[in-house]
Amino acid sequence: MKLTEEEQNILNSVERDEWRSVHGLAKEKRRYENAARAMLRKDKRVNIRMTERDLVRFQKKALEEGLPYQTLISSVLHKYINQVTNE
């Protein structure tokens, strides 16, 4: 099987015994599941204006990522506001 460079790096890391179990794995899984559910919950609608060029770039990037462009825009906004508020 042909591995990508990233996959090969991960395999090498595992073989070097660099991976450790996460302490409190069940709790961490629940935390990330709850965060994912909260992010996917779409309970408010927002209309924004942007340049056509930016919209086209969002649409192209979303197509590359295999998701709807509205989801990509929402994700970018979510990441931005969380980065700004966590600084």
Describe this structure in words.
The protein has one domain. With 87 residues, it is mainly α. The longest helix has 17 residues, at 69-85. The protein has helices at 5-15, 25-40, 52-65, 69-85. It is 67% helix and 0% strand. It starts with a helix and ends with a helix. The mean pLDDT is 89. It contains four helices and no strands.
User: What is the molecular shape?
Assistant: extended
Helix share bin? 55-70%
What integer value in Å does the Rg equal?
A: 18 Å
Assembly annotation: single chain
Largest sheet: none
Total domain units: 1
Q: Helix and strand succession? A: HHHH
First-to-last CA distance: 43 Å
Category from helices, strands and their pairing: mainly alpha
Identify low-pLDDT runs: none
Total helical elements: 4
The count of DSSP E runs of length 2 or more, i.e. the number of strands, is: 0
